[in-house]
Design goal:
Blueprint (H helix, E strand, L loop, with lengths): L29 H8 L33 E3 L2 E3 L22 E2 L2 E2 L20 H8 L6 E3 L3 E2 L2 E2 L4 E4 L8 E3 L31 E5 L4 E6 L2 E2 L4 E3 L1 E6 L27 H6 L7 E5 L28 E4 L10 H12 L2 E6 L4 E3 L8 H4 L10 E3 L5 E3 L1
Parallel strand pairs: 5-18, 8-10, 9-13, 15-17
Antiparallel strand pairs: 1-8, 2-20, 3-4, 6-7, 10-11, 11-14, 12-13, 15-18, 16-17, 16-19
């Protein structure tokens, strides 16, 4: 993930080391903080949490629509043609008929933006420009599988139970935009890219007793604690979201886990019932909800903003693909892709699993950007 631009300068207060800038919310007991955060509605911040407003008065920007319990596992607006906006803050469409789950936990409600059926939403008027910008002739890359050169392919996660010890977390870069610890994440939790990775090093844990998601970016286990650049906590039982303008463990300020392609859902459940996280190499300094944050490099209207929703064209033929690739294609036609981070173009995120058939998944590599279109899920915003 590329370095993120400061998200909300008005919200910052100097910290003791100049990096981990504490806010009043960091001094609150964790459960009280989480309860207060759940009072937030889209674009609203509670003063006691130390958060500023999400932007100024709307105005057009000229865009013409553009362990014992462990189980291891792999405001400026513009554009748009009036897509239906859901109560969860963007990404209009119908609720999923069969929302994803992990154990007894639903991975957010059926009407969460990640789970919406966008197959009937209108094509964005700027679709062609966005696809050209990302790469119309570039190929899709399924960024998940078994392993490559000894490291797991994808973003791993671990399930923990209610008795998992909570570990302190020291935030090294974006502490003022992170949910304070401790987190119930075991120190031997799997790390994206492996223990020696110098990449994003995402670490994800799901407490299946409370149905709570914990995520960290650039996470390093220490003696009895974690160090991470940023972290976020999400209540999976409701349409929980990070405060507006705040990053999370991902550049878009979104949770990562709901956008991962998982072996169990494809090969055991036989359905991809949510949008898939996708990365792009160049993004705009703007967002479309449900994204909460952006980290773009420019203001070119053809660059994709964070939160952009893409959908595989209904006419695209996946009939010759392997069974898992066909299941994924069906999900991409129904739920699509959601731009959530800067990275390689057309990289689809998933969780590693030794049971994946890498060759079967590899059928997706023949798909190019031209197989996709951008759907209109709401206005493009800046702050």
């Amino acid at each position: 993930m590329a370095p993120r631009a400061p998200a909300c300068p008005r919200c910052r207060a100097p910290g003791r080391d100049g990096r981990d800038r504490l806010q009043p919310r960091d001094l609150l007991p964790f459960r009280l903080y989480m309860t207060m955060r759940r009072w937030l509605s889209f674009g609203v911040c509670v003063t006691v949490l130390g958060c500023g407003s999400g932007g100024d008065d709307p105005a057009s920007d000229g865009v013409a629509g553009s362990s014992s319990d462990r189980a291891g596992a792999g405001g400026t607006s513009a554009g748009g043609t009036g897509g239906v906006v859901s109560s969860a803050g963007g990404s209009g469409g119908g609720a999923s008929a069969n929302p994803p789950s992990l154990g007894d936990c639903a991975v957010f409600p059926a009407d969460n933006p990640w789970n919406l059926d966008v197959s009937s939403l209108p094509v964005h008027s700027g679709s062609d420009a966005f696809i050209d910008s990302i790469g119309r002739s570039d190929h899709v890359h399924p960024d998940f599988g078994t392993e490559w050169e000894g490291a797991p392919i994808g973003i791993p996660f671990v399930s923990v139970g209610g008795s998992e010890p909570r570990m302190p977390v020291e935030f090294m870069a974006y502490g003022d935009e992170s949910d304070p610890g401790p987190y119930p994440v075991p120190l031997d939790a799997p790390i994206e890219g492996g223990a020696d990775s110098d990449g994003d090093r995402h670490v994800i844990a799901i407490d299946t007793a409370s149905c709570t998601l914990y995520e960290m970016y650039r996470a390093f286990p220490q003696s009895g604690a974690w160090q991470a650049d940023s972290g976020a906590v999400f209540d999976l039982t409701r349409n929980d979201e990070h405060p507006y303008t705040f990053t999370s463990a991902d550049a878009a300020g979104l949770p990562i886990f709901p956008g991962l392609v998982r072996y169990d859902e494809i090969m055991e459940r036989g359905e991809l019932s949510h949008a898939v996280r996708v990365t792009v190499s160049r993004s705009r300094r703007a967002l479309i909800p449900p994204a909460r944050h952006y980290a773009g490099s420019g203001d070119d209207a053809s660059l994709p903003p964070m939160g952009l929703r893409l959908r595989m064209k209904q006419s695209y033929d996946c009939g010759a693909f392997s069974e898992p690739a066909r299941i994924i294609c069906a999900g991409l036609k129904r739920h699509g892709l959601l731009v959530a981070d800067n990275g390689s173009d057309w990289y689809l995120s998933g969780a590693p699993d030794p049971r994946w058939d890498d060759d079967a998944i590899g059928d997706l590599k023949s798909v190019t950007g031209d197989a996709f279109e951008v759907v209109d899920t709401g206005a493009i915003e800046t702050y």
